[in-house]
Amino acid sequence: MPTDAGWIARFAGQRVLVIGDLMLDEFIWGKVSRISPEAPVPVVNVTGESYYPGGAANVARNLRELGASTSLVGLVGDDAHGERLCALLSAAEIDTAGLLCDRLRSTTVKTRIIARNQQVVRVDRERIAPLDPGQQARVIQHLDAALESVDGIVVADYGKGLLNQEVADHLCGAVRSRGKVLAVDPHPHTSLVWKGATAIKPNRIEAFHAAGMNLEPPVDPALSDRALLAASEKLLRAWQPGCLLITLGEQGMLLFEPEAAPHHIPARAKEVFDVSGAGDTAIAAFTLGLLAGAGPRAAADLANRASGIAVGKLGTATVTPAELEASFA
Protein backbone atom coordinates (compact mmCIF):
# COMPACT_ATOMS: atom_id res chain seq x y z
CA MET A 1 0.00 0.00 0.00
CA PRO A 2 1.23 3.54 -0.71
CA THR A 3 2.39 5.78 2.12
CA ASP A 4 2.50 9.56 2.42
CA ALA A 5 3.00 11.07 -1.04
CA GLY A 6 2.28 7.74 -2.72
CA TRP A 7 -1.46 8.28 -2.38
CA ILE A 8 -1.31 11.25 -4.73
CA ALA A 9 -0.55 9.03 -7.72
CA ARG A 10 -3.93 7.35 -7.16
CA PHE A 11 -5.86 10.62 -7.53
CA ALA A 12 -5.78 10.32 -11.32
CA GLY A 13 -8.77 8.48 -12.66
CA GLN A 14 -10.98 8.88 -9.59
CA ARG A 15 -14.49 9.87 -10.68
CA VAL A 16 -16.10 12.50 -8.48
CA LEU A 17 -19.46 14.26 -8.65
CA VAL A 18 -19.79 17.64 -6.92
CA ILE A 19 -23.18 19.02 -5.93
CA GLY A 20 -23.63 22.45 -4.38
CA ASP A 21 -24.03 26.18 -4.80
CA LEU A 22 -22.16 27.59 -7.80
CA MET A 23 -20.53 31.00 -7.89
CA LEU A 24 -18.33 33.13 -10.09
CA ASP A 25 -15.32 34.67 -8.32
CA GLU A 26 -14.23 37.98 -9.83
CA PHE A 27 -10.94 39.58 -8.82
CA ILE A 28 -10.23 43.23 -9.65
CA TRP A 29 -6.53 43.94 -9.26
CA GLY A 30 -5.19 47.46 -8.77
CA LYS A 31 -2.93 49.93 -7.02
CA VAL A 32 -3.69 52.46 -4.30
CA SER A 33 -1.84 55.77 -4.27
CA ARG A 34 -4.29 58.12 -2.55
CA ILE A 35 -7.39 58.46 -0.40
CA SER A 36 -10.61 59.63 -2.00
CA PRO A 37 -11.51 63.30 -1.36
CA GLU A 38 -15.17 62.21 -1.27
CA ALA A 39 -14.88 59.74 1.63
CA PRO A 40 -12.11 58.20 3.78
CA VAL A 41 -11.62 55.25 1.41
CA PRO A 42 -8.74 54.27 -0.88
CA VAL A 43 -8.90 54.99 -4.60
CA VAL A 44 -8.00 51.82 -6.52
CA ASN A 45 -6.49 52.27 -9.97
CA VAL A 46 -7.51 49.05 -11.76
CA THR A 47 -4.73 47.16 -13.55
CA GLY A 48 -6.49 43.90 -14.37
CA GLU A 49 -9.40 41.51 -13.83
CA SER A 50 -9.55 37.75 -13.32
CA TYR A 51 -12.43 35.27 -13.13
CA TYR A 52 -12.50 31.84 -11.47
CA PRO A 53 -15.13 29.22 -10.69
CA GLY A 54 -16.26 29.74 -7.09
CA GLY A 55 -18.17 27.86 -4.41
CA ALA A 56 -18.98 24.28 -5.42
CA ALA A 57 -17.51 25.07 -8.85
CA ASN A 58 -14.17 25.75 -7.19
CA VAL A 59 -14.34 22.39 -5.40
CA ALA A 60 -14.82 20.79 -8.82
CA ARG A 61 -11.92 22.82 -10.22
CA ASN A 62 -9.65 21.68 -7.38
CA LEU A 63 -10.62 18.04 -7.90
CA ARG A 64 -9.93 18.30 -11.62
CA GLU A 65 -6.56 20.00 -11.05
CA LEU A 66 -5.57 17.16 -8.70
CA GLY A 67 -6.32 14.64 -11.45
CA ALA A 68 -9.88 13.47 -10.86
CA SER A 69 -12.53 13.11 -13.55
CA THR A 70 -15.10 15.63 -12.31
CA SER A 71 -18.76 16.39 -12.94
CA LEU A 72 -21.00 19.02 -11.41
CA VAL A 73 -24.63 19.45 -10.33
CA GLY A 74 -25.87 22.97 -9.58
CA LEU A 75 -27.78 26.05 -10.70
CA VAL A 76 -26.69 29.09 -12.69
CA GLY A 77 -28.64 32.13 -13.78
CA ASP A 78 -29.58 32.91 -17.37
CA ASP A 79 -27.09 35.78 -17.55
CA ALA A 80 -23.62 36.76 -18.71
CA HIS A 81 -22.03 35.67 -15.43
CA GLY A 82 -23.56 32.22 -15.80
CA GLU A 83 -22.24 31.96 -19.34
CA ARG A 84 -18.76 32.97 -18.19
CA LEU A 85 -18.84 30.40 -15.38
CA CYS A 86 -19.93 27.62 -17.72
CA ALA A 87 -17.16 28.57 -20.15
CA LEU A 88 -14.56 28.44 -17.39
CA LEU A 89 -15.79 25.02 -16.28
CA SER A 90 -15.75 23.67 -19.82
CA ALA A 91 -12.21 25.00 -20.31
CA ALA A 92 -11.20 23.11 -17.16
CA GLU A 93 -12.67 19.90 -18.63
CA ILE A 94 -15.39 19.63 -15.97
CA ASP A 95 -18.59 17.88 -17.01
CA THR A 96 -21.43 20.44 -16.81
CA ALA A 97 -24.29 18.20 -18.01
CA GLY A 98 -25.82 18.45 -14.53
CA LEU A 99 -26.11 22.24 -14.51
CA LEU A 100 -29.60 23.77 -14.49
CA CYS A 101 -30.23 27.26 -15.86
CA ASP A 102 -32.77 29.28 -13.87
CA ARG A 103 -34.16 32.29 -15.73
CA LEU A 104 -35.48 33.79 -12.48
CA ARG A 105 -32.19 33.50 -10.60
CA SER A 106 -29.03 35.55 -11.08
CA THR A 107 -25.68 33.77 -10.96
CA THR A 108 -23.96 34.41 -7.62
CA VAL A 109 -20.90 36.64 -8.11
CA LYS A 110 -18.33 37.54 -5.48
CA THR A 111 -16.14 40.46 -6.52
CA ARG A 112 -12.93 41.04 -4.57
CA ILE A 113 -10.92 44.22 -5.10
CA ILE A 114 -7.23 43.58 -4.40
CA ALA A 115 -4.55 46.24 -4.01
CA ARG A 116 -0.95 45.51 -2.99
CA ASN A 117 -1.86 41.88 -2.32
CA GLN A 118 -4.52 42.97 0.19
CA GLN A 119 -8.28 42.66 -0.18
CA VAL A 120 -9.78 46.15 -0.01
CA VAL A 121 -13.46 45.16 -0.22
CA ARG A 122 -15.71 42.34 -1.36
CA VAL A 123 -18.98 42.91 -3.22
CA ASP A 124 -21.56 40.09 -3.38
CA ARG A 125 -24.30 39.87 -5.99
CA GLU A 126 -26.75 37.06 -5.36
CA ARG A 127 -30.36 36.03 -5.00
CA ILE A 128 -30.88 33.28 -2.44
CA ALA A 129 -33.91 31.13 -3.18
CA PRO A 130 -34.91 27.50 -2.59
CA LEU A 131 -35.42 25.01 -5.39
CA ASP A 132 -38.88 24.84 -6.85
CA PRO A 133 -40.42 21.31 -7.02
CA GLY A 134 -39.52 20.87 -10.69
CA GLN A 135 -35.89 21.86 -10.14
CA GLN A 136 -35.60 19.58 -7.12
CA ALA A 137 -36.95 16.63 -9.11
CA ARG A 138 -34.40 17.29 -11.88
CA VAL A 139 -31.52 17.54 -9.38
CA ILE A 140 -32.49 14.24 -7.74
CA GLN A 141 -32.98 12.58 -11.13
CA HIS A 142 -29.51 13.65 -12.26
CA LEU A 143 -27.95 12.51 -8.97
CA ASP A 144 -29.50 9.06 -9.27
CA ALA A 145 -28.29 8.69 -12.84
CA ALA A 146 -24.76 9.95 -12.07
CA LEU A 147 -24.24 7.79 -8.98
CA GLU A 148 -23.77 4.68 -11.08
CA SER A 149 -20.72 6.09 -12.86
CA VAL A 150 -18.82 7.89 -10.06
CA ASP A 151 -16.63 6.74 -7.18
CA GLY A 152 -17.48 9.54 -4.78
CA ILE A 153 -19.65 12.59 -4.20
CA VAL A 154 -18.70 15.91 -2.64
CA VAL A 155 -21.38 18.22 -1.23
CA ALA A 156 -20.41 21.91 -1.09
CA ASP A 157 -23.19 23.77 0.74
CA TYR A 158 -22.89 27.56 0.60
CA GLY A 159 -26.44 28.23 1.78
CA LYS A 160 -27.71 29.68 -1.51
CA GLY A 161 -30.74 27.40 -1.80
CA LEU A 162 -29.73 24.38 -3.88
CA LEU A 163 -29.58 21.98 -0.94
CA ASN A 164 -32.38 21.15 1.48
CA GLN A 165 -33.08 18.31 3.90
CA GLU A 166 -35.07 16.31 1.37
CA VAL A 167 -32.18 16.38 -1.11
CA ALA A 168 -29.72 15.59 1.70
CA ASP A 169 -31.74 12.60 2.92
CA HIS A 170 -32.16 11.24 -0.60
CA LEU A 171 -28.45 11.61 -1.36
CA CYS A 172 -27.30 10.00 1.91
CA GLY A 173 -29.62 7.04 1.38
CA ALA A 174 -28.64 6.59 -2.27
CA VAL A 175 -24.93 6.77 -1.51
CA ARG A 176 -25.16 4.27 1.37
CA SER A 177 -27.06 1.77 -0.76
CA ARG A 178 -24.35 1.92 -3.43
CA GLY A 179 -21.32 1.93 -1.11
CA LYS A 180 -19.94 5.22 -2.47
CA VAL A 181 -17.83 7.80 -0.65
CA LEU A 182 -19.79 10.89 0.41
CA ALA A 183 -17.85 13.91 1.71
CA VAL A 184 -19.72 16.99 2.92
CA ASP A 185 -18.58 20.58 3.42
CA PRO A 186 -21.57 21.97 5.39
CA HIS A 187 -22.85 25.52 5.81
CA PRO A 188 -23.51 27.04 9.26
CA HIS A 189 -26.86 28.58 8.37
CA THR A 190 -28.61 25.65 6.70
CA SER A 191 -28.31 23.19 9.63
CA LEU A 192 -28.84 20.21 7.34
CA VAL A 193 -28.26 16.73 8.75
CA TRP A 194 -25.98 14.54 6.63
CA LYS A 195 -26.50 11.31 8.53
CA GLY A 196 -24.12 8.51 7.72
CA ALA A 197 -21.84 10.45 5.38
CA THR A 198 -18.34 9.06 4.91
CA ALA A 199 -16.73 12.34 5.99
CA ILE A 200 -17.94 15.78 7.04
CA LYS A 201 -15.62 18.80 7.06
CA PRO A 202 -16.96 21.84 8.92
CA ASN A 203 -14.81 24.72 10.04
CA ARG A 204 -14.82 25.76 13.69
CA ILE A 205 -17.73 28.20 13.37
CA GLU A 206 -19.80 25.70 11.39
CA ALA A 207 -19.13 22.97 13.97
CA PHE A 208 -20.41 25.06 16.89
CA HIS A 209 -23.45 26.23 14.93
CA ALA A 210 -24.37 22.73 13.76
CA ALA A 211 -24.00 21.45 17.33
CA GLY A 212 -26.37 24.16 18.59
CA MET A 213 -23.69 25.64 20.86
CA ASN A 214 -22.51 29.20 21.40
CA LEU A 215 -19.19 29.91 19.71
CA GLU A 216 -16.30 29.91 22.18
CA PRO A 217 -12.85 31.46 21.61
CA PRO A 218 -10.14 29.02 20.45
CA VAL A 219 -7.95 27.30 23.03
CA ASP A 220 -4.33 26.40 22.41
CA PRO A 221 -3.42 23.56 22.10
CA ALA A 222 -6.48 22.51 20.12
CA LEU A 223 -6.74 19.15 21.89
CA SER A 224 -7.39 21.07 25.13
CA ASP A 225 -10.30 22.99 23.63
CA ARG A 226 -13.09 21.47 25.74
CA ALA A 227 -15.89 23.41 24.07
CA LEU A 228 -14.77 22.27 20.62
CA LEU A 229 -14.42 18.67 21.82
CA ALA A 230 -17.95 18.82 23.24
CA ALA A 231 -19.29 20.20 19.95
CA SER A 232 -17.57 17.42 18.01
CA GLU A 233 -19.08 14.76 20.27
CA LYS A 234 -22.56 16.15 19.62
CA LEU A 235 -21.94 16.14 15.87
CA LEU A 236 -20.62 12.57 15.88
CA ARG A 237 -23.79 11.43 17.64
CA ALA A 238 -26.13 13.45 15.39
CA TRP A 239 -24.48 12.85 12.02
CA GLN A 240 -22.91 9.41 12.62
CA PRO A 241 -20.23 10.00 9.96
CA GLY A 242 -17.30 7.79 9.21
CA CYS A 243 -15.10 10.69 10.33
CA LEU A 244 -15.36 14.36 11.19
CA LEU A 245 -12.62 16.79 10.13
CA ILE A 246 -12.82 20.27 11.67
CA THR A 247 -10.61 22.92 10.07
CA LEU A 248 -9.17 25.47 12.48
CA GLY A 249 -7.29 28.01 10.36
CA GLU A 250 -3.89 28.74 11.86
CA GLN A 251 -4.40 25.91 14.38
CA GLY A 252 -4.59 23.32 11.60
CA MET A 253 -7.23 20.58 11.76
CA LEU A 254 -8.79 18.17 14.24
CA LEU A 255 -9.87 14.72 13.07
CA PHE A 256 -12.50 12.76 14.96
CA GLU A 257 -13.37 9.14 14.36
CA PRO A 258 -15.80 6.94 16.29
CA GLU A 259 -14.05 4.89 18.96
CA ALA A 260 -10.74 6.73 18.46
CA ALA A 261 -8.94 9.57 20.23
CA PRO A 262 -9.05 12.97 18.48
CA HIS A 263 -6.08 13.59 16.19
CA HIS A 264 -4.56 17.06 15.70
CA ILE A 265 -2.83 18.05 12.44
CA PRO A 266 -0.84 21.31 12.85
CA ALA A 267 -1.16 23.96 10.12
CA ARG A 268 1.52 23.82 7.42
CA ALA A 269 1.08 27.21 5.71
CA LYS A 270 4.36 29.17 5.71
CA GLU A 271 2.86 32.38 4.33
CA VAL A 272 -0.79 33.36 4.02
CA PHE A 273 -1.65 35.64 1.11
CA ASP A 274 -5.29 34.75 0.47
CA VAL A 275 -7.63 32.30 2.21
CA SER A 276 -10.20 32.46 -0.62
CA GLY A 277 -11.25 28.91 -1.45
CA ALA A 278 -8.83 27.17 0.93
CA GLY A 279 -11.70 25.10 2.33
CA ASP A 280 -12.57 23.99 -1.20
CA THR A 281 -9.01 22.79 -1.70
CA ALA A 282 -9.11 20.93 1.62
CA ILE A 283 -12.33 19.01 0.92
CA ALA A 284 -11.08 18.11 -2.58
CA ALA A 285 -7.78 16.68 -1.34
CA PHE A 286 -9.43 14.97 1.64
CA THR A 287 -12.00 13.25 -0.58
CA LEU A 288 -9.41 12.12 -3.11
CA GLY A 289 -7.26 10.75 -0.30
CA LEU A 290 -10.17 8.64 0.94
CA LEU A 291 -10.99 7.49 -2.60
CA ALA A 292 -7.34 6.56 -3.16
CA GLY A 293 -7.54 4.21 -0.17
CA ALA A 294 -5.78 6.31 2.44
CA GLY A 295 -7.18 6.19 5.96
CA PRO A 296 -8.78 9.31 7.45
CA ARG A 297 -5.52 10.43 9.11
CA ALA A 298 -3.48 10.19 5.91
CA ALA A 299 -6.28 11.85 3.92
CA ALA A 300 -6.52 14.66 6.49
CA ASP A 301 -2.76 15.21 6.23
CA LEU A 302 -3.11 15.55 2.45
CA ALA A 303 -5.94 18.06 2.94
CA ASN A 304 -3.86 20.04 5.41
CA ARG A 305 -0.89 20.17 3.05
CA ALA A 306 -3.05 21.16 0.09
CA SER A 307 -4.82 24.01 1.90
CA GLY A 308 -1.46 25.22 3.22
CA ILE A 309 -0.25 25.54 -0.36
CA ALA A 310 -3.48 27.22 -1.52
CA VAL A 311 -3.40 30.05 1.04
CA GLY A 312 0.09 30.95 -0.16
CA LYS A 313 -1.37 31.98 -3.53
CA LEU A 314 -3.43 35.00 -4.52
CA GLY A 315 -6.93 34.50 -5.86
CA THR A 316 -9.16 31.43 -5.77
CA ALA A 317 -6.27 29.00 -6.09
CA THR A 318 -5.87 25.32 -6.90
CA VAL A 319 -3.07 22.89 -6.09
CA THR A 320 -1.36 20.51 -8.50
CA PRO A 321 -0.26 16.95 -7.72
CA ALA A 322 3.35 18.05 -8.19
CA GLU A 323 2.99 20.81 -5.61
CA LEU A 324 1.38 18.42 -3.16
CA GLU A 325 4.11 15.84 -3.71
CA ALA A 326 6.77 18.52 -3.15
CA SER A 327 5.33 19.22 0.30
CA PHE A 328 6.66 15.82 1.40
CA ALA A 329 10.21 16.62 0.29
The CATH architecture would be 3-Layer(aba) Sandwich
Secondary-structure element series: EEEHEHEEEHEHEEHHEEEHHH
How far apart the termini lie comes to: 20 Å
Helix content: 25-40%
The main sheet comes to: 9 strands, mixed
List low-pLDDT spans: none
Instruction: Tell me the fraction of residues in β-strands, as a range.
Output: 25-35%
Structure notes:
The chain is of the alpha/beta class and 329 residues long. The chain has one domain: UDP-N-acetylmuramoyl-L-alanine:D-glutamate ligase (3-Layer(aba) Sandwich). Helices cover 33% and strands 28% of the residues. It is built from nine helices and 13 strands. The protein has helices at residues 56-65, 80-91, 133-146, 165-178, 204-210, 226-239, 278-292, 296-310, 321-326, and strands spanning 15-20, 22-35, 42-55, 69-77, 95-102, 108-115, 118-125, 152-156, 181-185, 199-200, 243-247, 253-256, 263-265. The strands form two sheets. A nine-stranded mixed beta sheet has the order 5-4-1-8-9-10-11-12-13, with helices on both faces. A four-stranded mixed beta sheet has the order 3-2-6-7. A hairpin with a 6-residue loop joins β2 and β3. The longest helix has 15 residues, at 278-292. The protein is globular and about 60 Å long. It starts with 14 loop residues before the first strand and ends with a helix.
